[in-house]
């Protein structure tokens, strides 16, 4: 072959060699959205896996640092927290709350909810988690420290918000309001987004609030302005905590709160008893400690230099430096693709919780509720199979709509008292994702809220308790689920079980006064008049107007309760029963029956796989416990006699009784059961009437 024809082909072949070598080395494209799970938190992000892991690690580190401050080995996470970490300014500012008509100027915000909490971060900014450190600390205090006064909460949160953390060390103790918020512009240059402010200057220039007055003041949320707390109240609270921490006086502080809040000792006397000095002496000790912190003033002076380099931190005062309590190697963080439809639904779900963003969020959710991309359908099927195992049923690929959007819309309807609409949305969500425990929890919450709104008894107590138990198996630290379970037990007459559940809720969230109100109602139901009266006497002065009103109403009823033993109800209201009816949620109960049958070893495809729950009203004739813990109950009704088997009577769901008895005879009962044949079945729950 002529050389003139060989050379061009050889040149093309040689040119292709580098491409063949390089192509296998090119990284695979990351999915646009990722879901990352650390030990305690969920992060949803569009900024890539590396940044997502950094966010999850920083929150695990901050959580561990807070546990060190409180000298606790473990902390409660009594309400789930999801962190939405956005890579762009635009995405962040379209979801951020507004201040005077403009999006807030800080790179992160905390959004609490009655069901779950959210944090939203702008990853375009440096260290955006520092913007939410104050609220993050208050959240952890709520779930892990007994009720305290406002100065303690805000002072400790302000101290914690000075945190700086990286992969090697933690810094705490600087002036939290001193450092400006830094970020990069579009070409990568550092820019200062807000001028530095200093609590140190406030304390040096103003007359301090007397300690008795500081300890009496209530926190005013209106003083918070876009993340800054540049007021004397915050400054002095911060310095008192600074002193107490560094002088190791937190145990004395706990004793002080016990005296003031539980024993109602006057503040001056409580200070003397707890700290061994009067308020003037304690105040002077704090002032002397403050003036001894010369580095704090040096930090202020350095920050005011006109030619200072904003990328260099000024001296930062009395700082504690110690190795990070959680390193990257210590933290288990998993990542997986997150459906784009779910990401849009989550984003819109946060918008609807912010009043000025709600309409836009609802528009997006309603669009998603009726459409779903083919890619998202396939991804949901794949992820569902991974979550529930190889033998799990797959999601229907021909389902229409986005399950998460239906669930979020259901919550919004519950919040606005639109219960039928909520039930419809939950039914749609359940048909798309039958294993979503949030749907089960929302169903229980909706039943409770509807009964409150209609001044009626809750419907479906037995199924409600089963659902709540399933939710608590999924999330054993969910205080609100324990509280609802206590309310359901109390409504069904099981005051002992109700008390156990309510105490579990209080242990997980010791500051929620609703739980104490429900505990008082349980005391009343159990005829524990003195305990109820003492608790209600404290709650009638609550800062929560609903709790205070309910407490005063219950106090007014106590005399009638003691005399006649009447059932607890609000004055002037009746307690009609809501009619039981088949709802879209029956699909959930059928799925639960299938799982129960599978766990008992029933063969797939047998009739027990798809058994529906039936009920019978009749007379309990006999109980056979000869094969304990199994029991066989003989129940006679107009339709005939049934033999109902309980595999373990100790774990049987009871209504109207605290404990199962093998000696029951001649008792009116209502039983929920799964039929096995014409004359026998498996007992699900038993109500003593």
What's a concise summary of this model?
The protein is of the alpha+beta class and 689 residues long. Helices cover 47% and strands 14% of the residues.
Mean pLDDT: 82
Number of helices: 25
Uncertain regions spanning at least 5 consecutive residues: 12-26, 180-195, 222-226, 310-317, 387-399, 567-575, 578-585, 599-609
Which strand order does the major sheet show?
A: 6-7-3-2-1-13
How much of the residues is beta strand, in percent? Answer: 5-15%
Tell me how many strands there are.
19
What separation lies between the terminal Cα atoms? 102 Å
Shape: globular
Largest sheet: 6 strands, mixed
Share in helix = 40-55%
The helix/strand class is alpha+beta
The radius of gyration is: 30 Å
Tell me about this structure.
The chain is an alpha+beta fold and 689 residues long. The chain is built from 25 helices and 19 strands. The strands form five sheets. It has a six-stranded mixed β-sheet, sandwiched between helices. It has a five-stranded mixed barrel with strand order 14-15-16-19-18. It has a three-stranded antiparallel β-sheet with strand order 8-9-12, covered by helices on one side. β6 and β7 form a beta hairpin. α17 (419-432) packs antiparallel against α18 and α20 (479-491) packs parallel to α22 (513-525). The longest helix is centred in the first third of the chain and has 21 residues, at 49-69.
């Amino acid at each position: 072959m002529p050389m003139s024809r060989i050379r061009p082909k050889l040149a093309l072949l040689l040119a292709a060699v580098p491409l063949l070598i390089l192509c296998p080395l090119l990284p695979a494209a990351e999915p646009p959205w990722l879901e990352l799970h650390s030990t305690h938190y969920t992060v949803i992000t569009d900024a890539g896996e590396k940044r997502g892991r950094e966010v999850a690690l920083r929150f695990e580190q901050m959580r561990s640092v807070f546990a060190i401050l409180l000298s606790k080995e473990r902390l409660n996470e009594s309400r789930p927290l999801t962190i939405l970490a956005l890579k762009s300014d635009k995405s962040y500012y379209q979801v951020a709350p507004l201040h005077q008509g403009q999006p807030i100027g800080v790179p992160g915000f905390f959004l609490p909810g009655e069901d779950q909490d959210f944090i939203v971060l702008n990853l375009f900014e440096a260290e955006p988690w520092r913007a939410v450190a104050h609220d993050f600390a208050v959240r952890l205090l709520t779930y892990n420290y007994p009720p305290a006064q406002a100065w303690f909460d805000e002072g400790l949160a302000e101290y914690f918000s000075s945190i700086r953390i990286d992969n090697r060390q933690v810094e705490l103790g600087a002036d939290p309001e001193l450092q400006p918020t830094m970020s990069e512009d579009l070409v990568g240059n550092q820019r200062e987004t807000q001028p530095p402010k200093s609590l140190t200057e406030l304390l040096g220039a103003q007359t301090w609030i007397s300690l008795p007055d500081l300890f009496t003041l209530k926190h005013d949320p209106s003083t918070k302005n876009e993340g800054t707390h540049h007021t004397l109240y915050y400054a002095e609270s911060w310095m008192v905590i600074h002193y107490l921490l560094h002088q190791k006086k937190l145990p004395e502080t706990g004793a002080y709160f016990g005296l003031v809040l539980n024993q109602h000792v006057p503040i001056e006397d409580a200070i003397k008893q707890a700290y061994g000095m009067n308020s003037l002496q304690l105040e002077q000790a704090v002032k002397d400690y403050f003036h001894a912190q010369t580095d704090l003033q040096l930090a202020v002076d350095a920050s005011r230099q006109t030619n200072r380099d904003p990328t260099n931190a000024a001296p930062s005062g009395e700082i504690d430096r110690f190795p990070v309590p959680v390193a990257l190697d210590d933290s288990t963080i998993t990542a997986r693709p997150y459906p784009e439809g779910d990401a849009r639904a989550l984003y819109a779900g946060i918008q609807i919780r912010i009043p000025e963003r709600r309409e836009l969020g609802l528009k997006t959710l309603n669009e998603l509720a009726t459409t779903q991309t083919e890619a998202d359908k396939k991804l949901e099927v794949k992820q569902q199979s991974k979550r529930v195992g190889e033998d799990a049923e797959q999601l229907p690929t021909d389902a229409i709509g986005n399950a998460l959007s239906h669930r979020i819309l259901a919550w919004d309807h519950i919040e606005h008292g639109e219960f039928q609409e909520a039930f419809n949305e939950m039914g749609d969500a359940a048909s798309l994702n039958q294993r979503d425990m949030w749907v089960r929890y929302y169903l229980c919450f909706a039943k409770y809220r509807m009964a409150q709104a209609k001044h009626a008894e809750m419907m479906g107590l037995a199924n409600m308790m089963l659902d709540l138990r399933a939710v608590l198996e999924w999330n054993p630290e969910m205080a609100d689920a324990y509280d609802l379970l206590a309310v359901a037990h109390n409504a069904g007459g099981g005051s002992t079980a109700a008390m156990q559940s309510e105490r579990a809720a209080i242990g997980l969230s010791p500051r929620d006064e609703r739980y104490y109100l429900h505990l008082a109602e349980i005391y009343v139901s159990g005829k524990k008049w003195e305990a109820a009266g003492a608790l209600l006497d404290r709650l009638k002065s609550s800062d929560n107007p609903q709790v205070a009103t309910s407490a005063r109403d219950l106090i007014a009823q106590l005399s009638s309760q003691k005399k006649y033993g009447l059932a607890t109800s609000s004055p002037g209201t009746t307690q009609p029963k809501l009619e039981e009816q088949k709802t879209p949620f029956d699909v959930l109960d059928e799925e639960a029956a299938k799982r129960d049958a599978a766990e008992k070893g029933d063969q797939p495809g047998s009739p027990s796989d798809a058994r529906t729950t039936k009920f019978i009203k009749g007379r309990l004739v006999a109980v056979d416990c000869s094969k304990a813990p199994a029991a066989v109950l003989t129940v006679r009704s107009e339709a005939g006699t049934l033999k109902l088997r309980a595999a373990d009577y100790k774990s049987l769901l009871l209504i109207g009784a605290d404990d199962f008895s093998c000696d029951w005879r001649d008792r009116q009962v209502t039983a929920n059961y799964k039929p096995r044949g014409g004359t026998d079945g498996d007992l699900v729950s038993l109500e003593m009437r």
